[in-house]
Design goal:
The chain is an alpha/beta fold and 274 residues long. It contains 12 helices and 7 strands. The chain has a single domain (7-155, 178-218, 264-272), classed as Rossmann fold. The protein has a 7-stranded mixed beta sheet, with helices on both faces. The radius of gyration is 19 Å and the shape is globular.
Length: 274
Amino acid sequence: MTETGNSRQSQAWNGPLGHHWAAHQERYDAMLSRVNDALFEGAAIKPGDRVLDVGCGAGATTRIAARLTAHGHAVGVDISAPLLDRARASTAAEGITNAAYEHADAQLRRFPPAGYDVVISRGGVMFFADHTAAFRNLARALRPGGRLAFICPQPAGPDSEEARAFSLLGKLLGEEAPDPDRAAAHIAMASLSDPDRIREVLRGYDDIDVAPVTVETVWGQDAADAVDFILSRTPGRTVSDATRAALEDTLRPYDTGSGVRLRAGVWRVTATRP
């Protein structure tokens, strides 16, 4: 197992949670495709750039970065072995030759000093055990003037479409004890939701910008498909026909005809290394 400063997250992302993301790679990639737009607008990758993708998961953003940098290269790093297996397989299948992957904790990994022009992350940076130490390590990996761009969730307020829908779904599914791995991931997701906290852990960077962006997440082709996917995230869970019908009714208002789409707020964070 790779060296990591965060054994709890390593356990989660190498266990059932990571295997679910790997098994449903296409689902998750489709879900987060609009988030990619916000990330790469902030990253401003140019041909020839050397790009580091932190918490790359199954490699969707690494592959996009590799295409954008053309004759440069992209390296994805993640603590999840099953997700990296999927990343390598997809990269080979798509014929991308300027992308590679490392099984490592980016908080501790000794990257080549000033080895990258751009560091990106689509939601991976929230999972660090020590955010301040991690961002200092990433600053060392950036060349002077290099760019950092990442996406993290805004506070989960009660009025967003995602919050309203999943509050109702949770009530319908009962007050079961949450899966510990998923609970740990959920807690970590909120770790950088406060803009003041983001600026604090980025101390030492220049030009820090925390911009609110509204994105749509796509949960399925229609309400029934979305419910199938949501239930699959808890292995072995079964529900009655009445509960399934109620779950579908909850999501039906968000069925646009081109997928079940829920709006949510994220922060697009950009900064530069002095």
